[in-house]
Amino acid sequence: LRAASNWVWRSAQLLSTSSVARAHSLKAASLASIYNPLGVTSVRFLAKKRKMAGEDVAQQLEAQKELVRKLKTEKAPKDEIDAAVAKLKELKVAAGDAAPAAKGKGKGKAEEKPDPEREHRTKLEEMLRRRFWIAPAYQLYGGVAGLYDFGPAGCALKANLINLWKQHFILEEGMFEVECTAITPEEVLKTSGHVEKFCDFMVKDKVDGTCYRADKLLEERLKALLKDPDVEAGLKEEYELLLNKVDALTQEELGNELKKLCIKSDNCNDLTDPFEFNLMFGTMIGPEGTSRAFLRPETAQGIFLNFKRLTEFSGGKFPFAAAQVGNAYRNEISPRAGLLRVREFQMAEIEHFFDAESGGKHDKFENVKDVKIALFSANAQLRKNNESKVVTMTVGEAVESGMIENETLGYYVARTYLFLRMCGIHEDKVRFRQHLPTEMAHYARDCWDAELHTTYGWIEAVGHADRSAYDLKVHANRTKTDLSIWKTFDVPQHVDVMEAKVNKGVLGKVFRKEAKEIIEYLGSLSTPGDEAGYAEAEKIENDLASNGECVVNVRCGQAATTTITREMVSFAKKTKKISGRSFIPHVVEPSFGLGRIIYAILEQNFVVREGGDDMRAVVAVPPVLAPIKVAVLPQSANAAFEEPVKRIMQALTGAGITHRDDSSSVSIGKKYTRFDELGTPFAVTIDFTTPEDDTVTLRERDSCQQIRIRIDRLASVVKRLSDGSLSWTSAKQMFPVVENEAEKQVALSKESDAPALQGSDLLESYLEKHGVHSLFHDLLNKVAEAKPEDPKAFILKELQKN
Fold it and tell me: At 442, is the pLDDT very low, low, confident or very high (cuts 50, 70, 90)?
């Protein structure tokens, strides 16, 4: 019974293309919350709206809606449809003007409640477009939903994120990096199960055919109801429980919930029942059009298909992991929410191969077992009580209790948490949610998503799946390729096997061309050390002994199973001495959606300086990710600044530090603001003292504090500040601090007690304090210029002068 508020909100969105229309959309939103907080469609509600907007306007509005529907249904010329839609928008604006006026005659005009999250997101997205961090693709041609371009700042941020990811995972873990093609033959994705199962549920507008992703429509409605203060507590508890398991609903359950909440299309039309839609982009290889393929929906399959080569490359090392960074493609049904639901995106995936008999042990688990993380288990998601459902515990405790399946999965969960924190994700805005059993991917045994909180709610950013041995097994069976690992025992072992005696003649007569596959399957059950194969062979033998026949899981023609008889095979128990065993490894896969991580980093670190106006926005990303590390800012266009600026930029370039200069005539404060919006952590100011003593000021973005530093020391210090090997608090102890009261008022971070300098930093501070650094720098320059025969004697002579 809840559709009217949905209609008002959607109508407001249609009107949001101009400043006047935006005002009306706010009025419409206000009406939705005041007059119909639960979104209940009723004759009384519609009558009240007609009375407020004016009977004539309402009648014209309904008639115009009907006309638009009719023109679309009859596929009228585009010009006619556009003219009718324009008229419809005018009438909606008129209806929006009338409603608040009528309301004002009674208790007074209702005030629009500000939404801080929406305001925050609006400011961020406006800034991202204005400074070309990110922009919709093909915008000159109207744009395409779900496709985005990265500008210079966005590109640099993404490159830095990937470099940090490679350093944190590939370098630290000694992984093998590969790069595989995105165009994937259909046969590969049929085998992996993607052709059949890589689907979302879709619904269509019954009138105009607009497509929607069914679970997202339900999520949006549930979130709106949970925010509504007029919804009863009991209903909110039910809605929250339903929201937690939206992704796990079956096709039928999803359809029932959509009907129960009377969810309509954007144009307030009825929706079809949900049906499956495969998300892969199809294509053809070659001009003949006979070889069907898809753009890969994930990067993992390329690693699995190269497993044999990776095994050889490892030189016998096992377990091992392979990693890949690359684009993936998914034909999203209704992409929205910026970078969170797009059709082309970059992924970073790891496939960690290990022996299942090890119990999922990881030799570096001890290093992370004490890392504390927030866990949202499958059981907690289904609880109805009001207790805290997210628990904080160490990874070691989670594995020991069985909440996380094994050490290898727990290890990567902890390492992912540490990586996200390094990237600037806030501690209270990251959690790990376990998939419900009905939500699990077709290949997964256990799965935990790293979810990041944004103004859109909790979003999945990293998936951690225990894929068992599914992928390697299906590809090995389909291609008849051995994708196993051989492990030699320290001491030979005696094991029981069920040895198969196959009557190939009988099998050949009955099954003909399918006989080969059946013979291979029965023979594989006799593999020494294969406990599952032994159990299956024992079951087949018992069934044959008691019934004379048995059904086995081998496809025969159109049938998924095959019936064999006693004449075809028999099994006998024997003991064999073996020196090792062959097994197909299991896989734990962490899969990172880089676009979602980037959006969460930007949103969580986007702030407006207190005490300033809205223009003093800051993207306070960690220095290691910052697109531009240093801004070089001459205080004016004075000719005396040209030479120092040139030297500084050459030194920064030589040290591999990204930088940009700004020689415009605007004030230094505005220059700071320009670079704050680009996330630049440090700014060098060349002022009128610089030509006199060869020093500049170095400003830190968040604290707005400044130090005075010699030009010859600048590059090395900024390098260390950028990679994290030197903290800003330590730098302030090493160099003179410059006070700036105006900047101090808008600082993002407050000054904290600095730890005492130690080691090389302490020595460096001591030498800097007594001018030793600058003294020897000048001496070396003199030696380079004079080129004396005895450099040592020359230096001693110069020191005596001083």
Answer: low
**Contact present, 278 and 466 (Cβ < 8 Å):** no
Structure tokens at 707: 């130090």
The backbone torsions φ and ψ at residue 175, rounded to the nearest 5 degrees and listed phi first, read: -80, 160
Q: List the one residue out of 285, 10, 17, 281 whose CA is nearest residue 147.
A: 281
Residue 441 has pLDDT above 80, yes or no: no
Q: What is the reported pLDDT for 783? A: 80
- Host H or E run for residue 710: strand 706-710
For the CA atoms of 72, 78, 81, 84, what is the dihedral angle to 10 degrees? 180
Taken in order 227, 231, 233, 237, the sign of the CA dihedral is negative
CB-side neighbour CA atoms (13 Å) of 140: 0
* Sequence-separated (6 or more) residues with CB below 8 Å from residue 43: none
Per DSSP, the three-state class of 777 is helix
Q: Phi/psi of residue 591, each to 5°? A: -125, 115
Helix 214-227, helix 251-260: angle, nearest 10:
40
| C-alpha–C-alpha distance, residues 798 and 515, integer Å | 94
- Alpha-carbon gap, residue 660 to 666, rounded angstroms: 16
Residue 99 has pLDDT above 70, yes or no: no
- Looking up tokens 């009306």 gives 24
* pLDDT for position 76: 77
SS3 string, 702-735, reads CCCCEEEEEHHHHHHHHHHHHHCCCCHHHHHHHC
Q: By C-alpha distance, which of 747, 748, 765 is closest to 756?
A: 765
Cα gap 768→789, rounded to integer Å: 30
Report the DSSP beta bridge partners of residue 272: none
Among 224-233, 325-334, 336-345, 581-590, the least confident range: 224-233
Q: How far apart are CA 682 and CA 623, in angstroms?
A: 9
Distance (Å, whole) CA 284 – CA 329? 15
* Cβ-contact 364, 334 below 8 angstroms: no
- Cβ atoms of 728 and 754 within 8 Å: the answer is no
Alpha-carbon distance values, 297 to 329, 461, 596 (Å)? 5, 16, 16
Q: What is the pTM of this model?
A: 0.77
Q: Report the distance separating Cα 208 and Cα 72, nearest Å.
A: 7
CA gap 364, 29 in Å, rounded? 53
d(CA 635, CA 648): 14
What secondary structure letter does DSSP report for 367? Answer: G
| Mode of pairing for the β-strands spanning 291-295 and 148-150 | unpaired
With both helix axes pointing from N to C terminus, report the angle between 594-604 and 116-130 in degrees, rounded to the nearest 10. 110
Task: Report helix, strand and coil shares of the chain as percent, to nearest 5.
Answer: 45, 20, 30
